[in-house]
Every structure is written in C-alpha cells, then in structure tokens.
Amino acid sequence: MELIAELRRLHFVEKVKISELAxxxxxxxxxxxxxxxxEGDPVYPTRKQQPYPQLGPYRDRLREWLEFDASLPRKxxxxxxxxxxxxxxxxxxxxxxxxxxxxxxxxxxRTETPxxxxxxxxxxxxxxxxxxxxxxxxxxxxxxxxxxxxVAHFRLSYSRKMFVVAYPRETQEMVLDAHIxxxxxFGGAPKRMVYDNLKTVVDTIFLGKERRFxxxxxxxxxxxxFEPVACTPESGWEKGQVENQVGNVREWLFTPTPxxxxxxxxxxxxxxxxxxxxRRAHPEQASRTIAACFAEEQGCLIPxxxxxxxxxxxxxxxxxxxxVSADRNRYSVPAQWANQVVSVRxxxxxxRMVANDDIVADHARxxxxxxxxxDPWHYLPVIERKPGALRHGAPFVQWDLPxxxxxxxxxxxxxxxxxxxxxxxxxxxxxxxxxxxxxxxVACELTLQSGVICAAVVVNAMQRLTEASRPKTLEPAxxxxxxxxxxxxxxxxxxxxxxxxxxxx
Length: 505
Prior knowledge:
Mean pLDDT: 88
Helix content: 25-40%
CATH superfamily of the largest domain: Ribonuclease H-like superfamily/Ribonuclease H
Largest sheet: 6 strands, mixed
Number of strands: 15
Number of helices: 19
CATH class of the largest domain: Alpha Beta
Distance between the termini: 157 Å
Radius of gyration: 41 Å
Shape: elongated
C-alpha cells in the first residue's frame, strides 16, 4: 500500500509521467496505471480451485484414508500431521501445508459441527510436585485378534515426562499395578497425584474437594508417600496435561492400529516409545528437551524404598472339586483345602490363594471367561485314593507333560492296574521336589531305550538317578600297604578225618 500511495503522490502532485514511474520503480506501465486508479486497499483475485502439483498423484489415496476415517469413532481418526507422515512413507515429497489445506477443504465439505472453545488459565508446577493420571481405551491387534485395551497414562506436570502401560481391565488391581510400574519407570513418586473421580480410587464424593478414598488405594498412597487429589466432577481441564496426552498418544502410538504377539510385548514397546518421545523439545522451555527437564525433576521425586504388593483380597470357599472362582474363571487349590475358606489375592498378572498366612496356590491370571486353570499336583492326594480319575480327570487330560512321560504313561495305562502304577510314579516324583518331573522325564527316556516299559523299570531308573553316590575309599597319606610275613597254608587233613566219621541216627 505504501508503494501505491507513493506512485499516486508523484503522478498527481509532482506530475511525474507514467513512463518515468515505471523506470524508477521497475514496474510495467500497465501496473503503474492500475495502481494510479486504486484509491482503497488493493483487491487481488483468489483462486477458486487450489492446484496440487506435488500432492496430485496422492489425492485419491488421501481421500480414501479420510473416507475410511469417517466411518471410525472420532478418537481413532488420523490427524493431518499423521496423514502427512503416512504419505511420506508412500513417497510424497511435498510440504505439510498442502496436506493440511486438502484435509481442511475435504472436512468443510462434510459440514462438520464446529468445535466449542473454552478459555483457561496457564498453570505453573514445580519439579517433583504433581503427576496427573487418566485412562484411555485403545484398539490393538494382539496375536492376530483385535482387542480394546485399557491404557493407564501418567504425566509429570513439570518435565512433561510421560509413562503409559496397557491392561485388559480397569479394575483396582490394575490401577495399583500401573502406579507401581510408573514409579519404577520414573525412579520415584511425586508429592501429589491428580485423578478424576474413578470408582477404583474414590469411594464417596462430598462437597468441594472433600473425598473418601478407597482404603486399598490409600494403602498404596501411604506406601509411596504421595497425596491423592481428585478433580471437580466433569472438570477435566484440572488435569489438562494428561487429557491432552491421551489424544497425542492415540495419534502417535495407536494410529494406525499396531500389531503385537502379546500384551507384554506391547508394554515393552510403549515404555521404549515413552523414552523416545522424551527427546522432543519441552513445550514451554523450547531450548531444553523433556528428558533434560526430567533429569532435573527426578532428584525432587520421593525415593522408592520398596515395591508395593498391589493385590486385592477376597475371601472365597474352595469347592469339593478343589476349585475357587475368581474373576469369572476357576483356579485349583491343593486338595487338603477343599470345602474350606481361603483368601484370594488378585494382582495384575497373578492369582494367589492364601491360608494361614501361607501361599497355598499360585496361578498366572487368565482374562477369559469360564476357563478352568488347574495344577495337577494339587490333585495327587485325590488320585492316590481314586486312581481311575487319572484317565479322564481334567487336570491330567490338559497336563502338558514331556513327550517321554506321555509315551510311558500311555503304555503303562494299557497294562493291568496301570492307573495305580502311574500314580505311584507321580507320587515318587513329588517327593523329589522341584526336580521331580525332570527326573521322571529322564527315567522314562532310559526306560524307552531299554525296550522294557513298565512301572517297576521306571522306579528302578528313578532310584538310580537319585541315590546318593558312595564315598571313595581314602588311604592315609604316606602309609604303606601292610604285607604278610607268614602266609597261611591250607590243611586238608581235617576234612579227610571228617569223611571217616560214622553218624548214628
């Protein structure tokens, strides 16, 4: 606009000719005439259709992704940045702005409802003071099957260091285990933890900020010495950092849907990605990375002196089949506890039964429904009295024994009283402790090599494998072997005299 004003002043006031103005300002004469006729702000023509010289070959691919996203829930859709990164993998060499404009035009054509904006107050946190927690539901493919996993999010408010871990459920033992994993990852606990009012943490909501927290959760807080703080209901902005992290993590880590062989593999990958994302610049301290700020904050965290046992107790009665129901599945307990009450301790990955302050059974936790998880050793006292149950008993049919033991078992069960004979082998293996099954496997291999397969041969092999070795005969050092000076001479005359004796009956 300054140029137009100068041209008009020189021409109309100082009477400078158009050709002289064009030469002086390096403009064409038609351009000078147009500027001389302009009195207000210049109006430039706008393009009705935006050309895409670089994006052109990829517009159909981009449109295909956008149409597929439209059929998904909003939280699983791609952002423009994520679409740009995927196009780069496809070979796109253009800029991000072209992708952003195309996505904007495509979405505006669908007349989506505009977002409602709110105004917030910026917050400042000191190192080690606050950490925010939240859950999210993400879609992953585990073992070839699509699952919806529950992801626990932690975010240190000062350094912005984050930690995420996935679980099958949002139950209380999962909440406890997530805190244990997070504090181990951070190398300490913050002074305050901020939550929304989830039921596994808060039992009762009173007026204002007053809450009644869950007793088991307060045991966790007492162990790690942090103060739990609950937000005002429906006020997620009070923990806005972790709320924002949920969307970012979904974009960065779960779009497109990742594939893993197991949940453990997924969590290992998530921990690695948290470390990698910490190399990014801090959102407020642009000259430093998140990792550098975390190194400063880590020294202000409360040290972790011992690991908390994050389990939830429940009293259950053992059935006559030596089974206890826990989380819609049944787990076995040693036969001596049948028809008695035991304490079931549910943790994130284990199910333990406790009686008289001793752990009587320990199983890996199953997250299906209606599953039967049995330890065959729990039923040995039963089949000792009822050996016929060995053939069709669920614990023994499902028992994944080594191949040599299976072959010998099948041969022995075809023999007369083979059920009882094989039970005696299992009882003998149990007396050997942890190495019993391994010893039985070796004994069965030796029996198969001998060609004579029966329980007595297996027992003999196990005894030879477990018998104590005889000590070697030691000779005194420096001592010589004594020698006979007078060797004895055989006297056969006594035998000859006996031959002449007459016996009287």
